[in-house]
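Thread: "does anyone have the structure for this chain?"

Original post by V.I.:
We have the sequence but no experimental structure in hand. Need at least a predicted one for the grant figures.
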Amino acid sequence: MLAAVGGLRAEEITLKDGKKITGTVVGFDNGMFRVETDFGFALIKREAVKSISFGAGDNKNPAAKAASRAAVERSNAQAAPSAPSSPAAVAVKPAPNPPPAPPVSQPLDEPLPTEVRERVEGNAYINETFQFSFYKPPGWKVHENAARETGRAIVALGPEDEHTVLFAERQVWSGVPNLKADATDANLRSTYRDYKLLSESSLEVDGHPALRREFSGVLDGAEWRGISLRVAQGNTVFGLVGLTSAENLQFQQAVLNKIIASFRFLPSGSAAQVAR
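Reply from O.Q.:
Generated one for you, tokens below.
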């Protein structure tokens, strides 16, 4: 059957093992071609077929030829609906493999620039290098010795008593950031004993996705409370982390909330507009 060559002068079916069958495709059902040959009818599994060629000189009537093409094209449509067919030869192609999954985004250890341009203007802290600003309470100062070795801490501010402190940070990711799995949260969990996440809410800041959290923990025998804001801008996360001792919470919590709520990215080419 597989070596048959006859006088029908119709389709030439090439199998994947190299053998060829000459006959007329009269139908396609249940994943199998029904082919009329000089020796009778043959059923050929679709996955065994490499290609089907329609001879230019065959003597089939137009209706029979159209029926053969329709059967082959129906088989192609079931395997790959968008695959085009050639008028001279219809290749039976396997379904395409799904595209590979995109790589998982990871935080990068990218250091800060050598020079970070920043200034305090009235009750506003303005960072010109990273183009953001937020409210600076009266009496608070910039701590010049803020640790920046990790490449995340941009600036630290707080009152003279140092019972309250606020950090501005940056974390660069290889792709889309994951606000719920950043390095800041991991550091807080490892630094504070009995770390507890008290609340978490998603929001937008200047049209960018953001995450706000409140938490507590114990450090050196004292309980601390904190508020954090993480804002994703492209593949970079900017954040504010405010910490205060539990005994100052009633007074400082409102201040920290005001700072967190005032965070804004600077409009391009214009002065910062910060809550006073």
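V.I.: this helps a lot. Residues 103 and 175 are 8 Å apart (CA to CA).
O.Q.: and The two ends are 90 Å apart (CA to CA).
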